[in-house]
Amino acid sequence: MTVYIRFIMILFCVFYKAQNNFIVYNKIIDDAGGNEKIYEKNILVFEDKWSIFFSYRGNLEDVNDFLTNSEKIRSSQIIKNSLDEKKFYIKDNSFTKDILFTLDNYQKIDWNIIQKDEEIILGYKCHKALGKFRGRNFIAYFTTDLPIDLGPLKFRGLPGIILKVSDKDNLFTYEASKIVLNFPQKIDINSKLLFSFPKEKSGYIDYKEYINIENNYLRDIKSKVEANRPAGTIVVSSSKERDFKIEKSFEWEESKKP
Question: Is the entire prediction scored with pTM above 0.70?
Answer without folding.
Answer: yes
